[in-house]
Design a protein that fits this description.
Layout: E1 11-22, E2 25-35, E3 43-47, E4 62-68, H1 70-78, E5 99-104, E6 109-113, E7 125-130, E8 140-144, E9 160-165, E10 171-176, E11 180-185, E12 191-197, H2 199-204, E13 218-219, E14 223-224
Antiparallel strand pairs: 1-2, 1-4, 1-12, 2-3, 4-5, 5-6, 5-8, 6-7, 7-11, 8-9, 9-12, 10-11, 13-14
């Protein structure tokens, strides 16, 4: 079976392994890039390793909205003919070395390198979401983290990648300072591209529920099916 490649229209989640030092205790966990998009537009990280607390994957889902070669992007920017229509003129298959726009599914805003800086790294920029896809701020070039991949090859499901802001030439980076931060920095972070759903399959099967879809079950209008916080204390859940 051939390896599945990433395409525009796919919905993905970006995760990484975060190391931390809490109260003198070293540890690590896998976390996923997320944002609320409503009110707070800054990106944070959602823990996905705690077996006692199910993660909220709905805030982590990113739609691969557009993909262009760097040459095509530069020509578009120099001609001031910015890409405003979703998916217009982009590559179908995502290739290493190309620039991408990632759209936060829940808020329908674009992942962007912001002009503000709220971290201790004064050479870094905040990462959040913005309403429009205009300008270079919401474009990111994608590069292979493994020597087994090279520029021009197809980006495959499960690949570790490095994302670089086109606007600032800084890496999409996970940092820890009294809590997790997502910033654009000169320090690298390896992000794993996890598959949530395939855009091509969804296009052919509109209205159907797919594997890996995030769902909530409601009873009545306002009661949501959930589990008790201490569910792992019961022997059957060990």
């Amino acid at each position: 079976m051939s390896e599945r490649c990433r395409e525009t229209g796919d919905i993905v989640a970006l995760s990484c392994v975060a190391s931390h030092n809490r109260d003198g205790v070293l540890g690590s966990e896998r976390v996923c890039l997320c944002t609320e998009g409503f009110g707070n537009r800054m990106c944070t990280l959602e823990g996905i390793s705690d077996r006692d607390i199910p993660p909220d994957i709905s805030v982590c889902m990113l739609y691969i909205d557009n993909a262009l070669s760097m040459r095509a992007l530069q020509e578009m920017m120099s001609a001031e003919n910015e890409l405003n229509a979703s998916g217009a003129g982009g590559h179908k298959t995502l290739l290493y070395g190309h620039a991408v726009q990632l759209k936060h599914v829940q808020s329908e805003m674009y992942l962007a390198c912001l002009s503000s800086c709220s971290s201790n790294d004064k050479l870094a920029f905040d990462v959040g979401v913005q309403e429009t896809n205009e300008g270079e701020a919401c474009w990111w070039t994608i590069h292979p983290a493994s020597k087994q991949r090279s520029e021009g090859e197809k980006v495959r499901v499960g690949d570790d990648v490095i994302l670089v802001s086109v606007a600032t030439e800084r890496y999409l980076h996970m940092a820890y300072s009294k809590g997790y931060l997502v910033i654009a920095s000169f320090h690298q972070t390896l992000w794993n591209i996890g598959s949530v759903s395939s855009g091509s399959i969804r296009t052919r099967n509109m209205g159907y529920l797919f594997g890996n879809d995030v769902v909530r079950f409601f009873h009545g209008n306002d009661e949501c099916l959930t589990i008790p916080e201490n569910w792992s204390e019961h022997p059957q859940h060990k």
